[in-house]
C-alpha cells in the first residue's frame, strides 16, 4: 500500500480520538530533553591568544557531528562548579553563534555573509565585540557540509561507498540516525544544548538578522536583545 499522508492521518486521529505528532516534533522533543553533547578535555577549556584578544577555548563533542564544536569565551562564561556542573549566568550575555564557512572564514570570500561582506569579517567583529563587553561567547559550529555549494563540499567527509563499522556519523544518507534529522533543526538543537552547557539562558545575540527563533523556551533559552554585528 501507499504511505498515509498527514491529512489522512489527521482524520484517523480525530475518528479514534488519538493524539498525533510529526517527526519534526519528535526530533524537537528529543533535542530539548536528551543531551547529545558533552565537553571534551580539558573540560574547563584552555586559553588561546588571538589577534582579537585572549579567549578561553572550550570544545564540545556532538553525537551527530563528526567534528568538535568550539566555544570562545570571555569573562568566566562556561566555568564549572566543584561538582563539574556549569555555573548558571542569570544576566544577559553577549553571544555570537557562527556556522563555519571555509572560504569566508579563512580566505575572506566576498559575499559569503549577508550584505556582501565575508563571514570572516563578521566572526572577527563579533570577537572584538565580546572582548569589548568583557563577557560573552563565540559559538563556532562545525557541522559536516550537506549542501551542494563549494563551501559545503569543502566541509564534507569522503567516505568509501560501502563503509561499515565506522563511528563517523553519515549526514549524507537519510537512513542514518543523523541524516534523518533536518540539517537546520539538528544544528539549532545542538547549538542551544551547548549554550546551556555554558550556563547561558539569556542572550544578547550578535546577529544582523531580525528573524525570530521559535521554540527556544523548550530549551530554557531567551533572546533578550539582537545586537548588530559591526
Descriptive overview:
By secondary structure, the protein is of the alpha/beta class. It folds into 2 domains: 1-34, no CATH class; 35-227, GTP cyclohydrolase II (Rossmann fold), CATH 3.40.50.10990. It is 27% helix and 21% strand. The protein has helices at residues 6-15, 23-33, 102-107, 119-133, 150-154, 183-197; strands at 37-39, 46-50, 53-62, 69-74, 93-99, 136-141, 202-206, 222-227. Strands 1, 2, 3, 4, 5, 6, 7 and 8 form an 8-stranded mixed β-sheet that branches. Strand 2 and strand 3 (53-62) form a beta hairpin. Helix 2 (23-33) packs parallel to helix 6. The longest helix has 15 residues, at 119-133. The protein is globular and about 65 Å long.
In short:
The chain is α/β, with parallel strands linked by helices. It is built from six helices and eight strands.
CATH superfamily of the largest domain: GTP cyclohydrolase II
Distance between the termini: 56 Å
Amount of beta strand: 15-25%
User: What would CATH call the architecture of the largest domain?
Assistant: 3-Layer(aba) Sandwich
List keywords for this structure.
Rossmann fold; globular; 230 residues; 2 domains; alpha/beta; 8-stranded mixed β-sheet
Amino acid at each position: 500500500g501507499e504511505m498515509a499522508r498527514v491529512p489522512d492521518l489527521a482524520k484517523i486521529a480525530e475518528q479514534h480520538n488519538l493524539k498525533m505528532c510529526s517527526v519534526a516534533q519528535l526530533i524537537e522533543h528529543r533535542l530539548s530533553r536528551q543531551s547529545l553533547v558533552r565537553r571534551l578535555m580539558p573540560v574547563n577549556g584552555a586559553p588561546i591568544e588571538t589577534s582579537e584578544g585572549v579567549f578561553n577555548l572550550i570544545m564540545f563533542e556532538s553525537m551527530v557531528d563528526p567534528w568538535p564544536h568550539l566555544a570562545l569565551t570571555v569573562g568566566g562564561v562556561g566555568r564549572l562548579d566543584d561538582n563539574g556542573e556549569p555555573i548558571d549566568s542569570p544576566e544577559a550575555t553577549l553571544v555570537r553563534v557562527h556556522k563555519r564557512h571555509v572560504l569566508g572564514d579563512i580566505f575572506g570570500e566576498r559575499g559569503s555573509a549577508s550584505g556582501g561582506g565575508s563571514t570572516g569579517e563578521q566572526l572577527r567583529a563579533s570577537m572584538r565585540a565580546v572582548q569589548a563587553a568583557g563577557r560573552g561567547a563565540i559559538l563556532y559550529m562545525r557541522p559536516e557540509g550537506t549542501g551542494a555549494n563549494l563551501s559545503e563540499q569543502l566541509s564534507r567527509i569522503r567516505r568509501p561507498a560501502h563503509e561499515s563499522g565506522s563511528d563517523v556519523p553519515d549526514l549524507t544518507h537519510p537512513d542514518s540516525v543523523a541524516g534523518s534529522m533536518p540539517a537546520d533543526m539538528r544544528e539549532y538543537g545542538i547549538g542551544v544544548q551547548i549554550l546551556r552547557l555554558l550556563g547561558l539562558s539569556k542572550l544578547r545575540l550578535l546577529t544582523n538578522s531580525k528573524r525570530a527563533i521559535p521554540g527556544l523556551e523548550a530549551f530554557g533559552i531567551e533572546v533578550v536583545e539582537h545586537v548588530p554585528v559591526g
